Amino acid sequence: MTDLQIKTAHFNQLYSTTQPKLYAMVINVCRDKDMALDILQKVYLKLWEKWDTIEPKENLMPLLFTFAKNKYIDELRKNKCARAATASITPDKEDALCPATDAQFNRKEYREVLATVISRLTSRRREVVKLYLEEDLSRKKLAERLKISPNTVDNHLQESLNFIRHELSLYIKAGID
Hints:
Blueprint: H1 3-30, H2 33-50, H3 61-87, H4 99-104, H5 107-119, H6 123-134, H7 139-146, H8 150-174
Helix pairs in contact: 1-2, 1-3, 2-3, 5-8, 6-8, 7-8
């Protein structure tokens, strides 16, 4: 057997013995099957990438729990940032409008400006933003529906939100008249 085959066999054996317990812990904490599976995938990918530097390779559950906890915290931060950024541009939420914006726009003008700005996005980004805002889909669900990776969804959302924020700030500075 080659070194890679030995490594793969040992990793697969470790995965089959640790995955059920780790999954139970993650699902108990996050209460979301998709997020739990996403976290587990990232945890085992990280373990695979660091496999050669980890010694000893017995009893890796504490390390896996630490990886899972950190990945869960990363997911919470990412989701909080994405929701906060979305809330700042969502016209349907009264509290999402800051006082300066509220003073310059009425809601109808704001919606028109937002629709104009969104229409200037590329077709794919426009589709991602509309599904995210209007249907409130998670990035995982968006990725499945659009048949793209969750990271691509994240990139589309981040770039779109940056563009929208920038364009709205120009309207706010210039006024809409």
